[in-house]
Specification:
34% of the residues lie in helices and 26% in strands. By secondary structure, it is an alpha+beta fold. It has two domains: 137 residues, Fructose-1,6-Bisphosphatase, subunit A, domain 1 (Fructose-1,6-Bisphosphatase, Chain A, domain 1, 2-Layer Sandwich); 111 residues, D-Maltodextrin-Binding Protein, domain 2 (3-Layer(aba) Sandwich), CATH 3.40.190. Strands 4-3-5-6-7-8-9-10 form an eight-stranded mixed beta sheet, sandwiched between helices. A five-stranded mixed beta sheet has the order 12-11-13-15-14, with helices on both faces. Strands 1-2 form a two-stranded antiparallel sheet. A hairpin with a 2-residue loop joins strand 6 and strand 7. The N and C termini lie far apart (42 Å).
Length: 262
């Protein structure tokens, strides 16, 4: 796929950050780790990746705004555009030596995600999409799964750690969903959960209390792969609401009904 200048910049930047992270991942036991809260860790590698991404994106597009997990929000002189970045989604996996984490970069224009990259550097899988141009994994076009029965579907979610926030609601979700599906996976990287729905590896995904940088890029990738995305509150936008449900078009209604019945 021949992408726009912005998408090509995002892919190049994600690869650069991914290379930096892979080097640290190989020496994970030597990382300098500090705690942001129970079960929520940030490493030197995480901060360095965001520094690399912010430097490259903001030098190339100095008028754009910025929202990053580690460095927060910056207003740009162009109020219609901003980068939304998670430099290392799946930090806990990374720090435990589990090769399931990603760099996530989204470009928002007038409140809508128009370009997206999720780079799984450990597996060299580059998921990307641009509005109206489809979703891709490296050189292959992506399409959500064709399964149309809940009992055949595999779904992903995030389970709150350390007794935080929405644990009771998530346990209720699992109690309703697990008897009617083929399985639920919790792999600890929301950006990759969404990318896997786009690739047909999962049939759907939902999560409560999620941050914009975790899901912004993945939302566009799912939609451009033919999937459906909404918030748990159907009147809300998932990025603004901090909750999400997505699935292929055949299973979205059934998954949404199951999760929203709380």
């Amino acid at each position: 796929m021949q992408g726009s200048a912005n998408l090509n910049l995002m892919i190049k930047t994600a690869r650069k950050a991914g290379r930096s992270l892979v080097k640290d991942f190989r020496e994970v036991e030597n990382l300098q780790v500090s705690s942001k809260g129970p079960g929520d860790f940030v490493s030197r590698a995480d901060r360095e990746a965001e520094r690399l991404i912010k430097t490259d994106l903001m030098e190339a597009r100095p008028t754009y705004g910025w929202l990053g997990e580690e460095t927060g929000a910056d207003e740009g002189s162009d109020p219609t555009r901003r980068w939304i970045v998670d430099p290392l989604d799946g930090t806990t996996n990374f720090l435990h030596g589990l090769p399931h984490w990603a760099v996530s970069i989204a470009l928002e224009h007038k409140g809508e995600i128009t370009a997206a990259v999720v780079f799984d550097a450990a597996k060299d899988e580059m998921f990307f999409a641009e509005k109206g141009a489809g979703a891709w994994l490296n050189e292959s076009r992506l399409r959500v799964s064709g399964r149309n029965k809940m009992i055949e579907g595999i779904f992903a979610t995030g389970v709150p750690f350390g007794g935080t926030g929405p644990l009771p609601a998530t346990l209720q979700d699992l109690a309703r969903l697990m008897p009617v599906c083929a399985g639920v996976r919790r792999w600890g990287a929301a950006a990759l959960d969404l990318a896997y729905v786009a690739a047909g590896r999962y049939d759907g995904y939902w999560e409560r209390h999620i941050k914009p940088w975790d899901i912004a890029a993945g939302i566009l990738i799912v939609r451009e792969a033919g999937g459906m995305v909404g918030a748990i509150d159907p009147a809300q936008d998932p990025v603004a609401d901090g909750s999400i449900i997505c699935a292929n078009d055949a299973l979205f209604a059934a998954l949404a009904k199951t999760i929203r019945n709380s």
